[in-house]
Amino acid sequence: MSWLQLHLDTAADQAQQLEEQLLAGGAVAVTLRDSADQPLLEPAPGATPLWRHIRLTALYSADTDMARVLEALAPALLARAAPRVEILEDRDWEREWMRHYRPLRFGRRLWVCPSWLAPPDPDAVNLLLDPGLAFGTGTHPTTALCLAQLDHISPTDATVVDYGCGSGILALAALRLGAARALAVDNDPQALAASRENARRNDIEPRRLELALPGQDACERFRGAAGIVVANILAGPLADLADTLVDFLQPGGTLLLSGLLESQAAALCDRYAPRVQLHVAAQQDDWVCLRGDL
Fold it and tell me: Which of 47, 196, 205, 209 is most buried (CB neighbours < 10 A)?
């Protein structure tokens, strides 16, 4: 089956109204992306990030009368929208994504391998991964930095907390590297489901991995017991979670924080300074990983 795509360029203050009209006119989905190469970093608390110049792409079934769709839109919104319609051939989008995901090495021993491919080094520490709907494949610099640090620390027999676990990649990597047990925490139930499935895929014994939403009993049981706490989120939530994350650490434990830019590191170090001294342990492009030892 083929689809029709309608592309429209608009300003930020008109994007919501135009999106609503497209959906009301029969669009199956509408996506928004930057049309002017404007960087968009972490928003201020309570703010909704949006580019100044936006390209809306609306998806329609192949038999849609696109002339009528355009006629139904407010003329003021179309004035500079430069509408373009194109045919989108149907694909197996899951397989299209899988075609570009390849095994990646982190540190000396650790490989993260797509679950549908054979590991390139059978004798290495191999983590088989299928992220599903959750964040975390190892391809983003912040995840890569955390994985390399876990390999460097060598968490043999450690208790590990992965806060904001996504696909479970960091908790599972720690377990594959020799950690005794891990707690994976996320506020998205789909992330916990993906983590559970990836644990099964890697033959991780259920007793070694606990999964929890924030505030559940498992979080309390791991308080003060973790030799390693890792959180790959964003600078804002990392600042808000400072006490929560440090409270998981046992004396002498190690804290790893990522998901932040180099320009955000100093402020986050100041936030944690009363309880743990952080420093930049590694950097990739503009992203950094902070480390502190209690």
Answer: 209
